[in-house]
Amino acid sequence: xxxYTPNVMEHFLNxxxxxxxxxxxxxxEVGNITCGDALKLYLKLDSEGRIAxxxxxxxxxxxxIASSSALTELIKGKxxxxxxxxxxxxxVALLGSLPEEKMHCSVMGMEALQAxxxxxxxxxxxxxxxxxxxxxxxxxxxxxxxxxxxVKIRKIALANNLHTVEQITDYTKAGGAxxxxxxxxxxxxxxxxxxxxxxxxxxxxxxxxxxxxxxxxILRVSAVLEEKILPALQKDGGGVELEDIDGDVIKVRLTxxxxxxxxxxxxxxxxIEAQLREExxxxxxxxxVK
Length: 290
Hints:
By secondary structure, the chain is an alpha+beta fold. The chain folds into three domains: 6-123, Sufe protein. Chain: A (Alpha-Beta Complex), CATH 3.90.1010; 141-203, Arc Repressor Mutant, subunit A (Orthogonal Bundle); 209-288, GMP Synthetase, Chain A, domain 3 (2-Layer Sandwich). The chain is built from ten helices and eight strands. The chain has a three-stranded antiparallel β-sheet, covered by helices on one side. Strand 6 (238-246) and strand 7 form a beta hairpin. Helix 2 packs across helix 5, helix 5 packs across helix 7 (165-172) and helix 6 (150-160) crosses helix 8 (182-203).
């Protein structure tokens, strides 16, 4: 039995925006029923270019339905440019959390959104590069069971700070069937993070987080925690407090429901650490203080 948050159960039992839009301005379908999950997303824009309506049809588990429902709630009222910034992490934040093994459902929602925006642009003669999702004609297929390419593996790993094959399976399903691609996935990850570290060393900007004084580091980290991270955790009754900073290591204490949550490790790595890395420095590591 999966340990779902109240928000996941609410969006599963009472999903928002289920259905189709006959005169939709954009339609996209991702996933594959034969592989277990599929999502079809419809968008309708108003005269000001904002998403007036978003509906979906999902074949999948509770996490797939909840993720699709959360996605449509997140994007309604946004312009396509604003909606394009929505990622699987935003979907998970709205839901509180998802079991690691179900993270691919949030990724499927993000991919459907990117594909729908691309469909709208194509209908209007515009080009659009799907920044976070996988292009069907891009890259080399690594996992033949689920048609996952090396490009998708790299993009999802970078976006969610994934370092193990098990995490890639959780987020993309790659390697979750016959297992023949597991070694190749690990090699892709090893090469990716080796390249990433090399690029970080080359960049080394003068205003790097490491060069800040301890007081300025505390102020910068506190601002990100309060403005970007804490509001998402509070939606599910959780919280986070800054305890200490040691170089690039940020030590935090999880509070409320987060303190005893079975998914605390995922919250630290896939959400808190990912947000701090995105906002401050890719070298940041987060440790939990109990």
